[in-house]
Amino acid sequence: MAIPLREEAVEAVTGQRARIRQPSRLPSGPRQLAAFLRAQRVNLARHAAGLRPFRPGEFGRHPASPSAAHQHVVNRHIDHLRRRLFGLARQLAAAGDRAIERQEFEELQRFTRIKDQGHRWVKATEKIWDFYNRLFSQRQTRVAPMLLASDRIGLDCYQAIYTGLGTARSIPAPPPFSFMETGMSPATYRRGIVLSLIGRRANPFPLIKLPYHRLINPWTLGAIPHEVAHNIQSDLGLWRMLPKLIYRRLRARGVDRFSAGVWSRWHKEIFADLCGLLLSGPAFVASLMAVVGRAPRRTLSFNPSGVHPTPYLRVFINVELLRRMGFAREASAFQQAWDRIYPRRLARALPAPLMRSFARANRIVVSTICFTPLRQLGGRSLAEVVSFGRKEQKMVEEAAGRLAAGTDPGIIPERFFIGAARVALEARLARPAVISSNFYNALGRR
Q1: Whose CA is closest to 206, among 185, 191, 225?
Q2: Among residues 31, 89, 358, 443, which is most buried (max CB within 10 A)?
Q3: CA Rg, the chain, in Å?
Q4: By three-state DSSP, how is residue 188 classified?
Q5: Which long-range contacts (CB under 8 A, 24 or more apart) does 375-380 make?
Q6: How distant, in Å, are the alpha carbons of 26, 226, 345, 376 from that of 117?
Q7: Max alpha carbon distance in the chain (Å)?
C-alpha cells in the first residue's frame, strides 16, 4: 500500500510539531547544534515522503500513457525503499532527541551514522524514481504516439511467439515498454536484469530504447522485433542453453574450436536477428543492411571477445534464413547488393579459420536456432512457432499501398507495419512524411 504524501506523515516521524509548540522544553546547549540535528531528521522524513509512488493518471489517461501494470511494478520498488527510509527517519528522530538531550560524542556519532545511511537510501530511491519518471513523462510529449506504436509492435511480437509455442508457458507481464533516448543505438534492458540505472535492482519489465532518428523513419524500426527477441530468448529460457547447443553442433561437424567459440558467443545477437526476420519478413534484412552498412573499417571489424557478429557477416547469416523461408529471389538480391558494396576481397582481414568454415557454420547455426525442435518451445522449432512466407508478404505489400493512400491497412498484425512502411518507401508509393504519418495514425487507432 502506498504511503500517503502528507505533512502529518513527516510530523509523525519527527515530532516537529510538538517541539515547535514547546520550545522551552528543549534542553540547554549550543543552539546551532540543536537546530542542525532537528533539520536533518526533518530533511530525511521529507525525502521519504516526497519520493512517492506514481499516482493513477499522473502521466495522462490516453492510450499512450503508462499502463496500470507498468506503474504498479515500479511503485512496488519505490514503496519497498520508502518503507526503509521511513524506518531510518524514525531512528534518526529518536537518535536526534537523545543527542540534543545529552550532547555526548557517542550519541552524535550514532546520529551521523544513521543520517549517512539514510542519505544513501534517499539516493537509491531517488535514482529509481527519477529513471521511471523520465520514461513515463515521455508519454506526455510529441513522441508519445510513436512510443505507443512501438509498444504495440513489441506486444504483437510477444503474442506471435507465445501463441505459437507447442505447449502453454506462463504469460510474461507486463509487456515491453518503449522509450526514446537520442544519440544512442537501439537497445533493450531485459526483464529481471539488474540495472545500475536503478541502483542495481531488477528491471521489472522489458524496456526498448529507440533513438529519435529511428522513430521518425518507421521503416527502420526492425530494431523493435530484434530487441524484443532478446527478451523472448530470455523469458523462454534459451539464454543459457543455446550457446552450448551451438558449440556442440559446430564441433560435431568439424568446425574448429576458435570458430565454434566465436559463433556461440554471438548467439544472442544472431537469435535476435533471426527471430526478428521470422517475425517481420524480408524488410528486416533491408533494415539490418541500413544499420550495419557503414564505412568498411567498421563493417568488417572483428572483436575477438565481442557478442555482436562482425557486421559484414550479419547480412549473410540473415540471407541464409531468408532463403530457407522461401524468399530465394529476395535473398539473392540482398546478397548481390551486399557484395557490390563490400567485395569479398575485403573479408581477407577477418580471421582465416572463421572465414574458411563460415559457409558451413552459417548453415549449422541457422539450422540450430531456427529449425531444431526445442523443449523450451514446446517441442517445436522457432520456424514452426512463428513463420513468415509468401502469404504474409502479400499482406505486407497490400498494406503498403493502403498506408501510402492513407486508408485503413486492415487487420494485419502490428509487426507487419514495419515491412509495409518499407515497401511503400522503396516503391515510392508516397512521400516519406506521408508514409510516416499514416504509419503512426494507423497504429494509434488499434
Answers
A1: 191
A2: 89
A3: 28
A4: strand
A5: 376/236, 376/237, 376/238, 376/241, 377/165, 377/166, 377/236, 378/165, 378/166, 378/167, 378/168, 378/169, 379/166, 379/167, 380/164, 380/165, 380/166
A6: 26, 41, 61, 44
A7: 91
DSSP 385-442: HS---HHHHHHHHHHHHHHHHTS---S--TTHHHHHHHHHHHTT-S-HHHHHHHHHHH
Sign of CA dihedral 170, 173, 175, 177: negative
> pLDDT by residue (tens digit) across 419-429?
999 999 999 99
Helical (H) or strand (E) element with 264: helix 257-265
Distance from C-alpha of 404 to C-alpha of 408, rounded to nearest angstrom: 10
Q: State the Cα–Cα distance between residues 386 and 160, nearest whole angstrom.
A: 7
- 177-180 and 207-210: which strand pairing? parallel
Asked if 370 and 382 touch (Cβ cutoff 8 Å), the reply is yes
Going from N- to C-terminal start, the domains of the chain cover 7-140, 144-236, 237-388, 390-444
Per-residue model confidence as pLDDT tens digits over 341-354:
999 999 999 999 99
Mean pLDDT of 138-147: 96
Contacts 24+ apart (CB under 8 A), 187-192: 187/227, 188/227, 188/228, 188/230, 188/231, 190/230, 190/231, 190/234, 191/231, 191/234, 191/235, 192/234
Query: Cell triple for residue 343?
Result: 567485395
Half-sphere exposure of 192 (CA within 13 A, CB side): 11
Give the number of residues written for the chain.
446
The cell for 311 is 557486421
Q: What pLDDT does 10 receive?
A: 57
Give the 3-state secondary structure percentages of the chain, helix then strand then coil, rounded to 5: 65, 5, 30
Which cell is 216 given?
521518425
